[in-house]
Amino acid sequence: MELKEVFEPIINFIKGFQKKETENSKVKAKERLKLVLYQDRASVSPDYFEMMKKELVEVIKKYVDIDEELMEVELTRLFEDGLDGPALVANIPIKNFKPVAKKVEEKKDEPVVVEEVIEESKTEEATEKVKTEEIVEEKSEEQTETAEAEEKKEEVDEEIKEEPKTEEVVEETKEEVKEEKTEEQQKDEEKKQPTKKETTKKTQSKSKKSTKK
Amino acid sequence: MGEVIVITSGKGGVGKTTSAANLGTALTIMGKKVALVDTDIGLRNLDVVMGLENRIVYDIVDVVEENCKLKQALIKDRRYEGLFLLPAAQTRDKNAVNEEQMKKICEELKLEFDFVIIDCPAGIEQGFKNAIAGADRAFVVTTPEVSAVRDADRIVGLLESSSLPKPQLILNRIRTKLVKKGDMMDESDIVDLLSIKLIGAIPDDENVIVQTNKGEPSVTNPKSLSGKAYMETARRILGEDIPVTIPGKKDGFWAKFKKFFTITK
């Protein structure tokens, strides 16, 4: 025991003159294999990886509205910032930031609020869908006009035309500078409206609770 | 009731057939009754490695298709008492046999023999599935090269999800000089990577080529380093607890120096 303690530092000192471990090809082979085996093992049990991915999505979904179809989660090697090893790299496109989580945290007592917010996000999604449809139909105009596409176009056109009409009315009656303001005001009003509704509903729910109590 | 051992690897050319022939012969030398089964249908080789290629009459497909009885297809090795070979068919493909039929053959052979050693084809397709179907124990053969180790890991994964959850490792073709220089992974590296138990470490040995040219397994040559390693492996199969060492591996000066002081503690 004592002998070993005496000689170990000497051995280590002499070993310092020998070929460094990192220069050996064996070390490289082992490092490379380690990563390859990580990847292979992940693909050997795709269920396991999918399970993790699903759970990851569920957690992120609570806070952000994400595009699940375009989401990528990969096991790769990372070289950045002095890191050199296997890493889980996720690429998650965001559709919308949800104010859900904050509100839930603020008012955990009121489950009614959560429902309201979900409804809002649904309407947002609906408007987005309409926009995408527009784009698709524009393209179809350029290419070939089928009867179905025309029908849809008419429907959407009607919807779009309704909105500018009101704007035109505003333009006629008021000056250019004021127009902007009014538009802004309109937008503000639109934003305020749902919040007003919320507050009213909240008060309702509160009153309900108070009555229950 | 005997034990069925499948020898597999994933990658081709790492020494499955050589290992099967040597371990089979080693176990016979130790007094056991052994049946070697070649399941590499279409690319049979165990017969030439054993030097029994001229004595084939019936093969495994004949047994499955009931053209003959199992006992008729078994070739008796005249050099070693208790060693038999069930050859694969050369003119058919891997789909000529299915997993159920393979299980049946294994069950039948287990009644007669102490050990049934199955030489598995390379790959992870039907041939592999057939070979492992009736096995009780699996050995994965690999060499210390990245490609072979990778394939071995794949096989270990497949075995673990099958009915053979604890495969053991045979590390073949170790070049002790390269290992010493740090240019080849050694047994501890491979065990670390694959995280399965090592049952045999076989040094790279020119004698294997010379012996195979003559149709004799290298365990029959007492001077052969690989033969010694296979004999030790066979003893471990029988349950002896011997540490895995590589015959012919000489410790360097520092290793000897260190060993001396670790013993003194």
List its traits.
heterodimer, A: 213 residues, mainly alpha, two-stranded antiparallel sheet, elongated, B: 265 residues, alpha/beta, eight-stranded mixed sheet, 12 helices, 8 strands, 16% strand
Task: Provide an overview of this structure.
The complex is a heterodimer of chains A (213) and B (265). Chain A has a two-stranded antiparallel sheet. Chain A has a two-stranded antiparallel ribbon with strand order 2-3. In chain A, helix 5 packs across helix 6 (147-173). Residues 110-150, 160-182 and 189-213 of chain A have low confidence and may be disordered. With 213 residues, chain A is mainly α. The N and C termini of chain A lie far apart (77 Å). Chain A is 72% helix and 10% strand. Chain B contains 12 helices and 8 strands. In chain B, strands 3-4-2-5-1-6-7-8 form an 8-stranded mixed beta sheet, sandwiched between helices. In chain B, strand 6, helix 7 (146-160) and strand 7 form a beta-alpha-beta unit. The mean pLDDT of chain B is 93. Chain A binds chain B through residues 1, 3-4, 7, 11, 14-15, 19, 21, 23-27, 29-30, 32-34, 36-37, 40-41, 44-45, and chain B through 145-146, 149-150, 153-154, 157-158, 161, 179, 181-186, 189, 192-193, 254, 257-258, 261-262, 264-265.
